[in-house]
Task: structure prediction
Amino acid sequence: MPAYIALIYSRDVDWTKPEYGADMKEYSEFGEAAAAVIRGGNVLYPTATATTVRVTGGKGGDLVTTDGPYAETKEALTGFYLLECADLDEAVKVASTIPAAWDGAVEVRPVIEF
Amino acid sequence: MRTGDAVAEVVRAEGTRVLATLVRVTGSVQLAEDATQDAVVRALETWPRTGVPDNPRGWLLVTARHRALDVLRREARRAGKEAAAMLPADPVPEPPETIRDDLLRLVFTCCHPALATSAQVALALRTLGGLSTAEVARALLVPEATMAKRLTRAKQKIAQAHIPYRVPPAEELPARLAGVAATVYLIFNAGYAADDGPELVRAPLTAEALRLARLLVELMPDEPTALGLLALLLLQDSRRAARTDGAGRPVLLPEQDRSRWDADAIAEGVTLVGTALRRTPDRPEQYVVQAAIAACHALAPTYDETDWGAVISWYDVLLTVRDTPVVRLNRAAAVAERDGPAAGLVLVDGIAGLTGYPWWHATRAELLHRAGDAAAARAAYERALSCGLSRPAADHLRRRLAALPRA
Result:
């Protein structure tokens, strides 16, 4: 069965704060409703906590870390789900019920199966 | 029609059906396309000499299946696996319903909303229309290498993202069919308007769109969207011969020589509008309504005898399902014909969001001119020209501008 990752782009906030309790509840409702196809997933801390890692000069070269996300975007990558679906139509249907779909956007990408 | 052309036509029509079946059997658009292409080339080489076989589709399908099986065997050998046993060398003939369903699957896969519109257009022309990559590139005025890349990327996405090869379930069908119709209409308009090209009408694209619309009606004879789309294309295309003069300059509706309109296309289009309207008593369908508007024009003996009241009523119906500034602009132009330029101008000026649209300025210019305000008309024509238009359309507006009385 094909696997898809649903990358969640939404407000760049700290979802652990109590004021986002209602949002988190929506996500757990989604999690229950889509339990049959969810194979994993997590919420991320805001991009302010991100560290971007690069090694310059090829493998074994100098480690360069930068504070912040790799790409600065208006809506930030704030979480993801790993979904196992029959096809893209099913994956899109599931993704359309992730709360970020109406409060941000969800990018659905097929996962390479080795 | 020469023998060669007749053979080519059979090969093309049957090739699309064979491709549709092979996509289902092999699960790969690319493999199915390569194998079908191979069978088509062989048919075009052999049939003009030997004559078209009794069952051309069966011939093509067997040949293409053999080819696909060869490719799969070679790939399996390279990967050290057993050849896929999914392709019987001597297939049982497909029943007609299966062929119909295969074609429908191909239609909905090529026009899947997860594909970019430009990719849908290219895929529809390549797989459903059976054009070569070079022909698609020429028709869409894109370099062949760019088109090849676009098609490859689309087919990769279908394979890698697992875009399903199936007819959408009933609850999704109206929305998906609207998407298919939009793609076909886009192909038609690319041929009809040709705003980015030197010629006003790129006939191959309009012919391809008509062919695709006919295929949709053949596959879904009860769907008002399919009926309305074909009716609309037929009625618009019926005016093709009258849309340009001997020098290739555009001739607008009021000045067109109606004796040059295609009476057969009009008769077929009007009949289709009637059938489609009877099937949409509760909720209007946008292509059917647009076709009804086109029918009002097609049936008017002269421009002045156009039933503008009917045209305006149909625009009112269209606004209930498709409220866009361009629809409002067209309605305003019809109101101007019935109630005079001042009434039309009030409506045109009330439409927001069209300041970058040359025909909004051109419509204003025409109405201002009719209302006797040459200076304002001149300014509006100049704004229209600054929006960017095809050469023939721009030349036309310049001639209108030059004909204005001097201030």
About this structure: The longest strand of chain A covers residues 76-84. Strands of chain A lie at 3-10, 38-43, 51-56, 62-67, 76-84, 105-110.
